[in-house]
Amino acid sequence: MEQMNRLIDTFLNQLYRRLECCDTSDSDVLDEISRILQVWPEVPSSGKLPSPSESTVTKYLDAALKLGHTGAESSLIAAIRPLAPFLDWTFGYPPHPLYPNLESQVTFTQFIGPEDLGTADHLLMGLTLLAPKTYYPPHVHPANELYIPLGGTGIWTKGSEEPLPREPGSVILHPSGVIHTTESREDPVLALYIWRGDLITSSKFITDQEKLTE
Ligand SMILES: [Fe+2]
To answer: What Pfam families would the database entry show (predicted)?
Structure first.
């Protein structure tokens, strides 16, 4: 438990520094970061014992960490790497009608939250990992979501905006209720997410039909 506390503490300190020094002119991103820092966990501590589990996608984790190893987020990668053996990777969505193999292409691990390895009452934090050549189709949730790409360059879309390649060094904001997607190309994509707001309601897929009736 003591080792876990140290790892979580190091990770949170590194992430706090990263957010404090965020180099962007996007006022929405800066506003979200300010709100995240206002509810930052005061005494990072381990909330539960690790129960590590892998998915068929985690075979790409090492490659994704290596992609980011010397990049803009190398300090975050260094803080996350020692946590890797303790992480519990899951998919969490019901099967998608158009993409039935998603569970073997996309995986998530949440390790900071009200009942996670590191305790935080008002934030969720975790990692999203996409296998190469994977489309994470349109989805939406009421929480505000900040993404920091760590390894690999994904193609990200939100709302009606044009798809944009985003690499480590950038920060992506998905405001509450805005539909978004991520796609990987030849490399896997690893990104850190932070949820703030409604932490209870899960993300759900949106089909084209649902988009039309919105
Ligand atoms: Fe999301």
So the answer is: DMSP_lyase
